Task: structure prediction
Amino acid sequence: MADKLNYRIEVTGPAGDRFAEILTPAALDFVAKLDNTFAGRRRELLDERRHRGERLRTGEERLDFRPETRQIREDDSWQIAPVAPGLEDRRVEITGPTDRKMTVNALNSGAKVWLADFEDATAPTWHNVVDGQLNLFDAIRRNIDFTTEAGKRYTIGEEPATIVARPRGWHLVEKHIRIDGRPVSASLVDFGLYFFHNARQLLARGSGPYFYLPKLESHLEARLWNDVFRLAQQELGIPRGSIRATVLIETITAAFEMDEILYELREHVAGLNAGRWDYIFSMIKNFSSHGADFVLPDRAQVTMTVPFMRAYTELLVRTCHRRGAHAIGGMAAFIPSRDPEANELALQKVRQDKEREAGDGFDGSWVAHPGLVPVCREVFDGVLGGWPNQLGKLREDVSVTAEDLLDVASAGGEVTEDGVRANINVALRYVDSWLRGTGAAAIHNLMEDAATAEIARCQVWQWIRNGTKLEDGTALTRELAAEFLEEELAKVRADLGPDSRLADAHAIFTETALGEKLPSFLTTGAYARYLTDAR
Result:
């Protein structure tokens, strides 16, 4: 690795069992080299995010396919790098946090890929961040097990899933690691520690350092990741192109730049994924001042079959396959329960969703629970037959315009009191779980993550701002939403008991759903205190 530069690295998080194995001086120097090299560009890109978001909200800018990158979109000659080992077949991917139990269960689930999630499914306590790195370190070396409370021991089987790690997004920092007093990019902490410790080991085992990239809003942000990959490989002497990344298209601006994102990452990219809840949140955030045409119905009614969502997913498949990239479908968040009738109904919906994706040409899809792996696999087996993917299905029949992607009114539906209350209830429960250190929470038979808190509370904010009428004709005002909030708080408190963090969850919801502005719950004062103080 290159000589150490003149900077001071400080780890402010408390020590933990085996943390020193991850936070070695060499690993921290590697992270610092990445952060120092790219900190300025990262800040510039985040500034541009904010400025562009304001232009979109005020109507100063009309969202469309970029004219300056037309040549990239229209050029049929370029393709991404060939498929990497372990990523040829991605028909079922399971997602989840990087705690020890999930690590073992996910790798043994029968899924082809495990999305090891440091982002939305992980509450970013210092313990979770470093312990997750330790669990992946052990899993890659086949040195991990898990013992249940009943004493049953689980180890990794003979054919574990391929690990694809998801670092946190460019917008977040890791306050427990500082360079010359400033916090380091959380993206580069998660990526850097994982890559430094595991890249050579993964390549030696016939796989590679693979990543999911969240929350990108432009091809310039993809270009930044590509430059990070190049430097990381150079610093460690890893062959260029060893890294493969799958980009989540979960912002409306990124949906207009799919070709460009693939092009910027073409030596390192594996595919694109359709991330549902964050995509809807991005739509609300960027068009929050555009009136009733951009008001969405109850969350449960915004399915992947409504026209503007279907336009987005079909464009993703066409774009990916034209360039030789995998198209990965969305999440099946259902969690099997003890109610046979509820299970049958939920599994039927999951099957229908996966049949739509497989029929549209997706190469695979996500599930949140091992119990859903067989259903997803059966559906894709039926379409794929002996083929590992559907890259040959080019979807040349698909033609999507800017108007199609922005036609939110096509969702139809209605806003109901039950829908408002459900959003409030789920948001309170999830933020309580998150504040207690669990980022993937089982709520009402669904696996919810941080995207849940964002979509649930921003929908309430949007409905209040627009004076949206409920099914009985009553307009949703701040005062009425506050009444619902107090009533749902009482219900949730009765369920969760005295050890909850519901006071903080209530404060966060009030600030981010009932206030004048629409901040992310990750930028609230309560979150800032949590990130600094959490152990």
Observations:
- The first helix runs from residue 19 to 22.
- The CA atoms of residues 74 and 259 lie 9 Å apart.
